Amino acid sequence: MSDITPPVSTTTAPDPLAPARLGPVTLRNRVIKSATFEGVTRNALVTDKLIDFHVAVGRGGVGMTTVAYLAVAPEGRTERDQIYWRPEALPGLLRLTEAVHATGAKAAAQIGHAGPVANSRSNGLPSIAPSARPNPLALGFDRAATEDDIARVIAAHGDAARLAKDVGFDAVEIHLGHNYLASSFLSPNINRRKDSWGGSLSNRAEFARRIVAEVGEAAGGEIAIIAKMNMADGVPGGLWLDESLQFARMLESDGHLDAIELTGGSSLLDPMYLFRGDVPTQAMADTQKGFVKLGMKLFGGLVFKKYPYAPLYFRDYARQFRETLSMPLVLLGGVTDYDGMTTAMNDGFEFVAMARALLREPDLINRIQKDLTTTSLCIHCNLCAASIFTGTRCPLVADAKA
């Protein structure tokens, strides 16, 4: 038997509330306000309410806040008032980043194309998907993306990254999840193409990989690049861990990303898989009109499945990625307190992302800094999800108003 004692590891998990590097950017802590559509961008432009929304969480202590969702093309909006990249939007976006920076936080721009999640009826433009399919929200059909569409959307992501850099964003988050266009190409359920963009995982992943490469070239190492990708779509026949782990390895080997934010669910087919907790079906139906409103009231219980809430509810899936990858990862889902943050750090995740808890209490991070035992007031009722088209907010806050 050897008398040599193995060395004791002195590696400790990082403090989630201490400064950290994300690619070329230093954040004051490892907490990111994840993207939640703010619902206050009338005429697809920045408003004072949008700036106030992000300034509140900036003042509240987050390391970085993510502006959602900035479409790379006009038909890539989920509804007409969503911002899309164009000259008229740039002065407002510059004003927004300057206001966020004044709080000490960094600002990220979530960029992407909604694809089959887009509402063509609202946008007045045809929606596209990997394959032609019915679009119940628009009461119409998505047409299959052509080769020209694919090339145009890839280039538009690069243009968006360049513009984001010009107006002062510190990072871009590429939306590769929730069955938006890139995610729908990855999904065997939605992508029924027979050409080089469909079939094998390698083919289905090519669109997303080219988008990421285009953004990487446009960013030029000057701003951080995050990809938000699905671990699982949560629907039969959709993307699951066996393929999403392979896809993540592809992204890591391509070398364009500074981090991956791990998410799940389908805004198209199973929206509540992402949120977990209560399902306010009637409140969500009340935000719609006509046949869509009636359909949601009658059949919403079938469309919006209920998933029980648990702290760190994506942790078990996400740990598979931590075991597989060496690049920085962002843990999302049920992060609401310091214990959750430190659990994520001990698991090897470099950052955590929060959304609903910060809608309830924008100053939650400052409060945790002062008292590490602070717990969130968020009860996961998901009434905030019903407010997204009238100004995203927590209705339980006394002064919450559209």
UniProtKB/TrEMBL annotation:
Any one Gene Ontology molecular-function term assigned to this protein's record: oxidoreductase activity
Region (Disordered): 1-20
Record's keyword terms, sorted: Flavoprotein, Oxidoreductase
InterPro entries named among the record's database cross-references: Aldolase_TIM, NADH_flavin_oxidoreductase, OxRdtase_FMN_N
Residue span, NADH:flavin oxidoreductase/NADH oxidase N-terminal domain: 18-252
Gene3D superfamilies according to UniProt: Aldolase class I
SUPFAM superfamilies attached to this UniProt entry: FMN-linked oxidoreductases
Keyword Repeat set for record: no
One Pfam family matching this protein: Oxidored_FMN
Keyword rRNA processing: no
Name of the protein this chain belongs to: NADH:flavin oxidoreductase
Lineage: Bacteria, Bacillati, Actinomycetota, Actinomycetes, Mycobacteriales
